[in-house]
Amino acid sequence: MSNKLTHFDDQGRVNMVDVSDKAVTERVAIASGCVRMRVETLALVKSGTAKKGDVITVAEIAGVMATKQTANLIPLCHPLPITSAKIEIEHDDNLPGLRVKARVKTTGQTGIEMEALTAVSVTCLTIYDMLKAVDKAMQITNIELLEKTGGKSGSYKKPDSYRKTGGDNNG
């Protein structure tokens, strides 16, 4: 692994990396995050009685939409043809709160990690937005890349040594 930052040229100027010589490969990235909330707030989500509606469905749609907008949000990201984006949100009474996982896929010349991380971030922000009227103290935590496949650097899986124990463990 190189320690050189690829978004800077030899003179230190910012540039979008030239990926034209890279091979087209299938690429998958999985990211996750959590939204901690009061037990009562989680009960609203589970019962489907949140004032703004179905929190889970709206947040999943927001995550998919965010995936497709990543290049518009992150200045040096390449626009990628997203071939699959799946957002999963699970209740976790131990947090208490919701666990979010995004799995994003493309066939292209550069990685899709930023799309997966953006999907998780916007999904969590949407959950917060839909529930903030009843729980402004919610916390968005542990947004991280869990794994990725494809490309020149090959596969990556978050090492166990980085994983937390207890209620914050996403993996």
Fold topology:
Blueprint: E1 25-36, H1 39-47, H2 55-73, E2 82-92, E3 97-108, H3 113-131, E4 139-149, E5 156-157
Antiparallel strand pairs: 1-3, 1-4, 2-3, 4-5
Helix pairs in contact: 2-3
Descriptive notes:
The chain is built from three helices and five strands. A hairpin with a 4-residue loop joins β2 and β3. It is elongated, with a radius of gyration of 18 Å. It has one domain: 2-Layer Sandwich (Alpha-Beta Plaits). A five-stranded antiparallel β-sheet has the order 2-3-1-4-5. It has about 170 residues and is α+β, with helices and mostly antiparallel strands. Helices cover about 25% and strands about 30% of the residues. α2 crosses α3.
Rg from alpha-carbon coordinates:
18 Å
Report on the biggest sheet: 5 strands, antiparallel
* Overall helicity: 25-40%
* CATH architectural category: 2-Layer Sandwich
| Strand elements, count | 5
Supply the CATH superfamily name.
Molybdopterin cofactor biosynthesis C (MoaC) domain
Q: Kindly state the mean pLDDT as a whole number?
A: 89
Number of domains: 1
Low-confidence residue ranges: 165-171
Amount of beta strand: 25-35%
CATH domain class:
Alpha Beta
| Side-by-side strand order of the widest sheet | 2-3-1-4-5
- SSE order, one letter for each helix or strand: EHHEEHEE
> Which assembly state applies to the chains in this document?
single chain
Structural class: alpha+beta
Quote the distance from N terminus to C terminus.
24 Å
CATH topology: Alpha-Beta Plaits
**What is the overall shape?**
elongated
Can I get a quick summary?
The chain is of the alpha+beta class. The protein is built from 3 helices and 5 strands.
